[in-house]
Amino acid sequence: MADTHTYDVAIEWTGNLGTGTDSYRSFSRAHEVLAAGKTPIAGSSDAAFRGDPARWNPEELLVASIAQCHMLWYLHLCAVGGVAVLDYEDHAHGVMTMDATGGGGQFTEVTLHPEVIVADAAMVDKAIELHGEVGSVCFIARSVNFPIHHEPRVRAQ
What we know:
This protein has helices at residues 58-81, 124-134; strands at residues 10-13, 31-34, 41-43, 85-90, 93-98, 105-112, 114-118, 148-150, 153-156. The chain is an alpha/beta fold. The chain folds into two domains: 10-49, no CATH class; 58-156, GMP Synthetase, Chain A, domain 3, CATH 3.30.300.20. This is OsmC family protein. It holds the Pfam family OsmC.
């Protein structure tokens, strides 16, 4: 029997400016993403869709989830594969394309740009190779229907 994991979050709209949604411009897209025991995440829509650019939007959170999952699985694969990672950061880039009617859209790709420092120069090739294995185990990558590319840069300390 397969293990099942569940995740519960709450979304609370905080953008009623007094008249609710009586028109497209009459309300804020402000909301909070909540989960028990965690700091709330201040959310909104993308600024292009009348959102607050100072708050996280769902599109950014999706790209962040992909980058986080990739990093966590990558670190795991390195640990069991004998590659000592000393530092890791990523500057992920997602592309969402609107449909011709302007009423919707979808992500068409995400590109990860991990920058990794390993303990020894002999580990560099394997460290690069392991990025290619992450997609087969990363929960988020396996759950999306668009390509996730990675352009890693790995160097020894």
